[in-house]
Amino acid sequence: MSGNAALAAQPVAEEPVRRPRLRLAPPVPVAAPRTPFVLLIVVVVVAGVLGILVLNTKIAENGLHLTELNHKQAQLDLREQQVSQEIAEAESPGRLEAAAKRLGLVPAGAPAFIRLPDGKIIGVPQPATGKPSITSQ
Fold it and tell me: Quick check: pTM over 0.70?
């Protein structure tokens, strides 16, 4: 033990442990073909651009169509106002009287009424008096 104790008491000069140097492995060669991927990307981009072009063209075309329809609607609104005004003028009392005279009608007197539940006549019926206007038949 004395020999072992003497060895243990002596400082042992340690040799640095040599570790093997790490070397980077070269990257694994990728054998994936790049041409189909590039073509796919080009086709997707071209299709997207063409899609946007077609969409913009349709939007512009529909805008022109909408403008044309708005113009037609404005014309139809104006025509509707004109026709409504013509109808209002034709329904005026003066026009109706003139049209009735042209047809040979004369103003009626006081009207008589028939009460429907019992058939009683209220008032005295009289024929219209007046000179009928001459109409061409």
Answer: no
